[in-house]
Amino acid sequence: MLARLRDAKLLVPTIMVALSLPILIGFGFWQLERLAWKEGLITAITERTKAEPVDVGAFFDGLAGKPLEAGEYTRVTARGRFVHDKELYLYAPSSTQGPGFHVVTPFVLAGTERVLLINRGFVPEGMRDPAARAEGQVSGETTVTGLVRQPGTQARFVPENDAKANLWFWRDFDGMMAAAFGTSARPGQPMPLYIDAEAAAPGGWPKGGATELKLPNRHLEYALTWFGLAAALAAIFVMYAGGRLRGTTAPGG
After folding, report:
1. What is the pLDDT of residues 161-220, one digit of tens each?
2. How far apart are CA 94 and CA 75, in angstroms?
3. In the beta sheet, which residues pair with residue 94?
4. Which residue of 34, 45, 167, 253 pairs with 249 in a disulfide if CB–CB is 3.0 to 4.6 A?
């Protein structure tokens, strides 16, 4: 058999195909495993967003050293006060309302004096100035319900944050806290998480509910692509090898 393959100049192609097929099929099964993982993650996140809210302090302490990612999108409540004069603006263009921002405001938890950041929601560019939405600048102690989000990382092609202009393109918790409070004393110890507020502020702005839960899940498509490549490679090789072994030359051979 080896002699026939060698005579037909098929020995090297046969070895290459024999090595390639398990790799392609393996990638296909790996994507199926990723599909099961992603579906489980989506189910868990959906359940968290619909569950009864828990106290954010108890949630944070309950992580006990686990990464915040393990509890992201958990529905929580936080009671405390906003530090409105330290507002930060996260660039968030809207497909329906044009350029705008998410208003991210430091929030001091009642009792513990720990400080976290709350994304209060979207405002159009013309309402960036708090004076344009004065009714929404809630004073005194208040309760916020929303979803936990972890600090972000700068993705490729995302611009650098501009702390001096108070213009942010990604959720840099440490950078935002430093920009908000500078060298002045913070009201308390930072709690490194965000809450995306669910409800709109009084007067309608900022408009809460900014969380996007559209998690990409194309693993089945990727798996079928890998299996398809394996099948195509096998079919092409069979046709090519059959022609060579019959003493004919396949097109392009």
Report:
1. 999 999 999 999 999 999 999 866 677 789 999 999 999 899 999 999 988 888 889 999
2. 24
3. 98
4. 253
For residue range 71-125, list pLDDT tens digits in order. 999 999 999 999 999 999 999 988 788 899 999 999 999 988 799 999 999 999 9
| Of 39, 99, 45, nearest in space to 70 by CA | 45
Residue 206 burial (CB count, 10 A): 26
CATH architecture of 74-204: Beta Barrel (2.40)
The secondary element (H helix, E strand) that includes residue 100 is strand 100-109
User: What is the residue extent of each domain of the chain?
Assistant: 1-64+215-253, 74-204
Per DSSP bridges, beta strands 54-55 and 75-82 are parallel
**Burial class (CB within 10 angstroms; exposed 0-12, middle 13-18, buried 19+) of 104:** buried
Name 116's Cβ contacts closer than 8 Å, sequence gap at least 6: 56, 78, 106, 107, 109, 190, 191, 192, 193, 194, 195
Please state the φ and ψ torsions of residue 26, each to the nearest 5 degrees.
Answer: -60, -40
Sort strands 88-91 and 142-149 into parallel, antiparallel or unpaired. unpaired
Task: Please tell me the predicted confidence (pLDDT) of residue 189.
Answer: 87
